[in-house]
Amino acid sequence: MSYIASKGFRYPLTPLTRQLREELYTQPYSTVDFASHRNSISPAENYHPKTMLLNTVNHFLVLAWNPYLRTKSIRRRAEEWAFELIKREDENTDFANLGPVNGPMNFLACYIHDGPQSYSVERHRQRMHDFLWMKDEGMLMNGTNGVQTWDTSFLIQAVVEAGLANDPEWKPMLVKALDFLDDQQIREDCREQDVCYRQRRKGAWAFSTKEQGYTVSDCTSEALKSIILLQQLPGFPRPVSDERIKDAVDTLLTMQNRSGGFASYEPIRGSKYMEYLNAAEVFGRIMVEYDYPECTTAVVTALSLFTRVHDSQYRKDEIANVIRRAVQWIIKDQRADGSWYGSWGICFTYAGMFALESLASVGRTYSNDDRVVTGCKFFLDRQMADGGWGESYKSCLTGVYTPHEKSQVVQTCWVIIALLEAQYPERGPIERAVKMVMSRQLDDGSWAQEAIEGVFNKSCMISYPNYKFIFPIKALGMFAKRFGDAKAVNSCSFSPAPGSPSQKKSI
Asked: What is the mean pLDDT of residues 419-446?
C-alpha cells in the first residue's frame, strides 16, 4: 500500500469505475473532500480507535514529511526496497501471498512496476481465484487460500481418537490424507530469510498449502501429531521420513518466546506498545505477535507425542525444557475462574479444550492437578439445560465469557473433548452433552451449520464449515472408547432439536 501511494498511481477512468464511484459514495465523487475524512469511520467498526500518537505522526507525515522533507532520493530508495520485499513475498509464496489483503496490493504493485503484460501480473491474476468463491449469499472471499492442512490434520486425529483408523472403510481415506500432509510439508527455507524478515520454515506446515509458504506453530504441530499417530499404526505407510519429522521439531524449537509461550507465525519480535501505531481501526492486537494458548498447547502436545511415541532421545533435554516452560506459561495464562482466553476460535471454550488436552499430554489430569479441576469446573458451571454448551462471538470482543442464546454442537464437542482429555471422573455431565450432540445429527449423518466458530484479531469472525463434522466424530468416538459400547446412551430418550430427525442416534 505504501509503494502504491508513493507512486501516486492512477488508472484511467472506465465506465465501470465511474459506476462504482456513483455506487460507493453517498454524494457525488467530485464533491468529496477526502482529506477531511481521513479519520471517518462508523462507530460500529471502530474497534481499535487511532491513538493520539498515531494521529500526531500522521499529521506530521501529511503536513511536513511528504511535502517538504522527503527528498526524491529517499523516496526512490524506499520504493526500491519496498518492491524488493514485495518480490520476495511473491517468490516465497508463488504469488499466493500471506492472504487476500497483501495479495491484491502486491498484484497492483507489480502492475505498476512490471507492466500489465508481465508474468508477475498474470500469475497474481491467476492466484486471485484462490480466495474467491460463490455461495447463496453471493461472492465471498476466504481469509487465506484455504484451510487444507489445518482441517486435514484435525480430521486424521478425530478418526484415530475415535478408534476407526484401521476400519477398512476409512483407512483408504486416511492414507490419502497422510499422502496430502506428506506432499504439503515445506522442504526448504526462504532465500535469505533474514533479509525478508521470515521465520525458519524447513519442515513446517502452513495453514493451507505449502505454496502459501508461511510457518505456523499450531499448524505444524497438528500436522506433525497426525503424521506420527498414523505412521505408528500397523499397516499404514510411512512416507514422512524420520529426518523430515525431526525437521518439523527443529522448526518448532525455534519459535518459543522468552515467556515460554508460542505465537503463530514467528516469535515475538517487537513490543506490544507498537499497538499505539495500529492504524487498522477494525482489528486489535495486529502490530506484533503475541503468546497464544492455542499455539502453545498445540506445540506441547506435539512435542510430548514425539518424545513418547516417535523418538525419546532426539534433542531430549531441549525438548523437555521447552515443554516445561510452555506448561508454566499455560498455567500462568489460566484465569482465576479456570478459563483461558482464545484468540483463534470462540473463545474460552476453544482455548480451554486445547489447554486441558496439553496438560493431559504431560500427565496433569483431574485426579492430580488443581488447575485441571478448576478448568473443568469452569465448563461445568456453564453447561446449559439441554446438556450442551454455547458461547457467543462477543466473548472475543469483550474478553468476558458471553453465553450464546442456544447450545452449539461444535462448542459442545470441544467441551466433551476437554473433559475426556482431563479424565473428568463423572460420566453424567459428559453423557448429557453427548445426547445433545446426537439429537442434532441429521439423517445423512451430518450436522447443520450453526453459529460461527473462528476468529482472528479479536473482531474478525471466521467460519470453519468442516468443524461440524470433525469435532463430533472425535468427541463421540472418544466417549465411546472410554465408556465402552455406550449402551446407556443408546437407550436414553431425548427430545431432538427443531429440524432434526426424531429417531435415536447411536455412537
From this structure: 96
H-run or E-run covering 74:
helix 72-93
Average pLDDT value for residue range 101-108:
96
Residue 133, pLDDT above cutoff 90:
no
Residue 87: partners with Cβ closer than 8 Å, 6 or more residues away:
none
Whole-number average pLDDT of the chain = 93
Exposure pattern of 229-252 as b/e (b: 16+ CB <10 Å)?
Answer: bbbeeeebeebbeeebbbbbbbbb
> With 50 as the cut, is the pLDDT of residue 491 above it?
no
| Cα gap 284→24, rounded to integer Å | 26
Given 90, 218, 247, 369, the catalytic residue: 218
Residue type, 391: E
154: pLDDT strictly greater than 80: yes
Q: Exposed, middle or buried: residue 348 (CB in 10 Å: 0-12, 13-18, 19+)?
A: buried
E strands of 127-191, at which residues? 132-135, 138-141
Q: Is 218 a catalytic residue?
A: yes
Say if residues 130 and 145 touch (Cβ distance below 8 Å): yes
Q: What's the start-to-end Cα distance of the chain, in Å?
A: 53
pTM attached to this predicted model? 0.93
- Residues 6+ away with beta carbon under 8 Å from 471: 154, 158, 410, 413, 414, 417
Residue 111: count other Cβ atoms within 10 Å of its Cβ. Answer: 19
Task: Determine contact, residues 314/320, Cβ cutoff 8 Å.
Answer: no
Number of residues that make up the chain:
507
pLDDT (0 to 100) of residue 140: 87
Dihedral sign for Cα 147, 149, 152, 155, please: negative
Percent of the chain with pLDDT over 90: 89
The answer to whether 203 and 186 are in contact (CB under 8 A) is: yes
CA distance 476 to 507: 6
What does the DSSP 8-state code read for residue 443? T
Q: What's the CA gap between 248 and 219, in Å, rounded?
A: 11
| Amino acid symbol at 264 | S
Residue 354 · residue 327 · CB < 8 Å: no
- pLDDT, average across residues 60-71: 95
Residues 479-506, mean pLDDT to the nearest whole number:
52
Place of cell 499448524: 219
Which H, E and C letters describe 230-274, residue by residue?
HHCCCCCCCCCCHHHHHHHHHHHHCCECCCCCECCCCCCCCCHHH
